UniProtKB/TrEMBL annotation:
GO terms for molecular function: chitin binding. Residues 39-86 form the LysM domain. Keywords: Chitin-binding, Signal, Virulence. The keyword Signal applies. Residues 1-20 form the signal peptide. Residues 114-125 have a biased composition (Polar residues). Belongs to the secreted LysM effector family. This is LysM domain-containing protein.
Length: 125
């Protein structure tokens, strides 16, 4: 039963986030985006500064750091149909082809090794 639950989590929670991120912005962007941004999200109706970071397994603090024109309360420069950075090169990710590691900010996530082979056992630890 546990493996069924983990499989369902993988297909319903992880796959949509992976499939909907873009490697290049698919919409207008604000100035100041990081040059090492490797994944983008175009804001759709219903998105906000809590749901977008959660969808990509990043913190709101990371989202705001990578999108410096967005205000902390997200009332300024968080616009519908604009693209926002949701992953920078070298940032921790939930993908792995190796083992789970602890990042320098003490959050436990598998490390992106360049391949997007999901290891659901490590992601839930």
């Amino acid at each position: 039963m546990e493996s069924l639950i983990l499989s369902l989590f993988f297909y319903w929670a992880i796959i949509p986030a992976v499939l909907t991120q873009d490697s290049k912005p698919g919409a207008p962007v604000h100035p100041g985006q990081p040059s090492n941004c490797i994944a983008w999200h175009t804001v759709k109706q219903g998105d906000d500064c809590e749901t977008v970071p959660r969808r990509y397994y990043i913190t709101k603090k990371e989202f705001l750091a990578w999108n410096p024109t967005v205000s902390k309360d997200c009332l300024t420069n968080f616009w519908l149909k604009y693209a926002y950075c949701v992953r920078v090169d070298g940032a921790s990710a939930i993908y792995t082809n190796a083992k789970s590691t602890t990042t320098s900010n003490s959050r436990k996530y598998p490390v992106n090794q360049g391949k997007h082979n999901f290891n659901h056992k490590n992601a839930l630890n």
